[in-house]
Amino acid sequence: MDIALIGTKWKRGKTEYAGFHSMTIDEFIDPLSFLKKIASLFELEIIYRVEVVGSQIAGWYVDMVKKRGRETGKEVTLGKDLVGIKRIENSQNICTALIGFIKKEGGEVLTIADINKGMPYIVDNDAFQRWNEKGKHKFGFYTPETELDITPERLLTLMKTELAKRVNTSISYDVQAQSIGRVFGLAHELINEGDTIRIKDIGFTPKLYLEARAIVGDESHTDPSQDKYAFGDYREITDPNEELRKIYNRILSSLGSKQELIDQLDKLVKDANETASDAKKESEAAKTLAEKVQENLKNNTDL
Question: Residue limits of the Tail spike domain (predicted)?
């Protein structure tokens, strides 16, 4: 952790682990990715903490602690225990300059320096005007995950596509939920710190489905209805039915100028259904006739 935090204002805080692990870093890596690798290796989670003395910030700390909570499968929904939800733009992961590289066999590192005037990175000037920090670029790192046999030209193309994704804000959420588990004494509805839950708000357009973790709770000892929870690690979940409706509407829109074709297709479908219905009726009539003939033959034989 100390190595990962070199050159930053952050310091190592509380660490909860037992034992040692080896890690080899043989490529460019930013401090945040480095910390995430460490946390994953030791099966810990990262907590960022700021200490304040009086009105001054005394220190910035990164804690790594054992993962809390459970995968509960609980749903927080509007009208039950979801009080409110806000969608918030987040600029934390924005970069204005992107360094791209590929580690090839034999340890060689491929960059775009040879075709980019000696610079292994590209910049976005518009993003720099919006997001620079005291006149300095915010750097990010990028390595294509699926392409090994790659040229500098191809890497440059991929980097431009990736940088375009990183110059805009990301989306986060502010969720207010009430613990009906404590209000009504329902054990299966309880929310504990670290729990992973589902959040559903069909009032959004399109409907909003999230997965999130309860980061911290502020529980009242006298009035459970005043309990408040802060959530994080949001992940938006796609509603497959909603996606199918979008695809269906796009298809209808694309066929909007082909109404005659649509009418013909509808007629063919109706004709096919009618033909199938007639065939079924004829089949049933033939079956009935055969049964009657068989019955008559049996009766005549008995005589």
Answer: 1-205
